[in-house]
């Protein structure tokens, strides 16, 4: 009887630890959703797009996905060059500085491309839809990290 009580206690404790792990993972480990994810949800779920708008947005999104993938590949290559420079110089030398500058340039290009994508999506919207879209953009860009 005593062993059975221990077993039940062990099972309950294990279950509680598992639940705590899930909660901790959801609160502290899950990354924030990208701005464009929130905007796409707003566009496709809440703004009641017509068929013509959906078709135009599909083209815009497909073009952006291709461009974003290329820019993200460039960023990965820049990071590899930065790692090589750090390994070669073991400090903040001219190679590291140049690699950081290249990386920042690529990051800036990705940010510009993302903003152009957001404005292209906005241009597809009707006036009655733009205020909600604009509010979502401002909210996403000014939200404080938790």
What is the fold's blueprint, element by element?
Elements (H helix, E strand, L loop, with lengths): L1 H28 L5 H12 L4 H39 L4 H31 L2 H16 L4
Helix pairs in contact: 2-5, 3-4
Keywords:
146 residues
**SS class:** mainly alpha
Q: Please, how many helices?
A: 5
The biggest beta sheet, please?
Answer: none
Q: Ends: how far apart?
A: 47 Å
Residue share in helices?
over 70%
Number of domains: 2
Mean pLDDT: 81
CATH class of the largest domain reads Mainly Alpha
Strand content: under 5%
Protein name: Heavy metal resistance protein
InterPro entries: Metal_resist (IPR025961)
Organism: Edaphosphingomonas fennica
Provide an overview of this structure.
The chain has 2 domains: 1-30; 34-142, Four Helix Bundle (Hemerythrin (Met), subunit A) (Up-down Bundle), CATH 1.20.120.1490. It is mostly helical and 146 residues long. It has helices spanning 2-29, 35-46, 51-89, 94-124, 127-142. The radius of gyration is 24 Å and the shape is flat. Pfam families: Metal_resist. InterPro entries: Metal_resist (IPR025961). This is Heavy metal resistance protein. It comes from Edaphosphingomonas fennica.
